[in-house]
Structure formats: C-alpha cells, structure tokens
Amino acid sequence: MMSARQPVAFLPAPAPHWVGDGFFVVPLFADLAFSEEVSPFLMLDYAAPHEFAPRTKPPGVGAHPHRGFETVTIVYHGEVEHRDSAGNAGTIGPGDVQWMTAGSGLLHEEFHSREQTKRGGLVSMAQLWVNLPAKDKSTPPAYQTILNAQIPVVDLGGGSRLRVVAGAYAEAKGPARTFSDLHVWDIELKAGADVVLPIAAGDNVMVAHFTGTLHVVGQDLPQPGLLMFAKVGEAIALSAKSDVKCLVLSGKPLGEPIAAHGPFVMNTQEEIRQAIIDFRAGKMGRLEDFESQGA
C-alpha cells in the first residue's frame, strides 16, 4: 500500500489583480513563487470566470519579452490568441493548452481572440511558469498547441476525471514535451469523491485549488488557494465535498540557483543583466502591432 504524503500548508489566494486588461488573476504560489519549494515550477496565475462585454478591441496583454523558462496556458472558458516574435501564432479554446518555450528569448502577446472579443462572455484560464534547467535556458524558442482532444483522460470513478497535460498517470502519457521530469494533471472531482494519486519519490507536489470544496485531513479548504505536501510518501489523498476543479503539479526540483527579474528567469544576476541588454538591443526579435493584423 502506498504511504500518503501529509499536507504541510495551505496558502489562500492573495488579492487578485489585472494582467493587461484581459485577465483578472490571483497568483496562487504567493510568497513561494520562484523558490526551490515549488521547483521545477515558478509561479501560477489563475483567472476565475469573468464576464466580458462585447467590444471591438481585443483585451489582453501586449508584446513583452521572456527568457529562461516556459509558459503553460490552460483555457477553461473563452478563447485566447497568441503571437510571438519566433513566428508562432495560435488560438486556444476550452480545454486546450498552449506550451510556449521562451528559451533564449522572444517577445509574445496574449489577447482574447477576435471572435471572443466580438461576442463577449466568460473567460477563465490558468497560466503556469515552468523553469528550464541551466543547460537548456538558451534553447531556441518553441511553441506547442495542445488541443483538448489530444490530452489523455483518466477515469477516476464516479464521474471524476484526470487529464494528463504533461508527464504521465498510470499508462496515460501527456502530449507536452518537457525539459525536466514533471507532471501536470488537470483534475475534476465530483462531490463525494475520494482519490489517491501516486507521486514519485523525490518530487515536489502541490495542488492548485480553483473551485469547489476540497476536504483534506479533516478540513474544508477555501478556494482558490495552494495546497502543499510533505516530500515523504508515495501518494496524496484528496476528497471533494462539492465539485472541485484543481491542478496537481509535481516534479523533480532542479536544485539550481534562481535569479528572477520581471519576465526573465535565469541562474545568476549577471545573466539577468545580459537578458535586459539583449532585449533592449532587439535581440529577442520584433512583433508587429496586434491591431495591424486585423484585430
């Protein structure tokens, strides 16, 4: 029988804030962001369902740089459109995932899709930042569009289910290509569900709790928030008092220094300074204005 890891902390979500004018998010990693405690992950923003009125100009975030890590965007409601200076572009809708490798550096932008903007309605998503190992921080930028239909679904019983975005669960393997050993499971638990999820030895593991009532060790946990688990044990146990939506994130910590400054995540302050110099010199490419593309 697998020994269960004990929960060690629950971090209630900090106050929400706007990212651009299109995403009203809570930073669920709070003070643990960019720390070894959550490695190989860096931070996680959750945008709860928010109703947008129809408009003509797409809301979102204009061109900005990244270097040294990956962004993973999971859409729950609405549509998000992406473009970057490496020539990648795409639109993702409910259940789809965008996995962007910034690597050596690029500019990108994220807006509500043109159709989403015209019709308005709910938009909800989560964006996870995944660190790159030092040896891969200069890898060329890349982009993966992962459609809902490509993501394996594991039946957890009673209507509960687990989508394997990255890594594996039992025999199901996620479609995302990753640079380190990690797992991203997108989970829906029905009210009354009790599940035990295996976790590899040595992995950090946390549960990003989005909606519903999660019950752990005699406590009903508010949402949204982040549930942290001890490093000892082979599984985590979760119970749902009401329907729950959450992400389970686990992976081998990289064990490398983290130097973070705004949109750059490197290993040293000197590398951060070089990233700023390269960005100002235009070495991360150029991105034509979104509106000129017919938005």
Q: What is this structure, in a nutshell?
A:
The chain is mainly beta and 295 residues long. It has helices at residues 114-119, 269-280; strands at residues 7-12, 17-19, 23-27, 41-52, 60-66, 69-77, 80-84, 89-92, 97-101, 106-112, 121-131, 142-146, 153-157, 160-166, 168-169, 172-173, 182-189, 194-198, 204-211, 214-216, 219-221, 225-229, 235-240, 244-251, 259-261, 264-266.
Description:
The model is unreliable at 290-295 (pLDDT under 50). Strands 1-22-19-24-17-14-13 form a seven-stranded antiparallel β-sheet, with no helix packed on it. The longest helix is centred in the C-terminal third of the chain and has 12 residues, at 269-280. By secondary structure, it is mainly beta. The chain is globular, with a radius of gyration of 19 Å. It contains two helices and 26 strands.
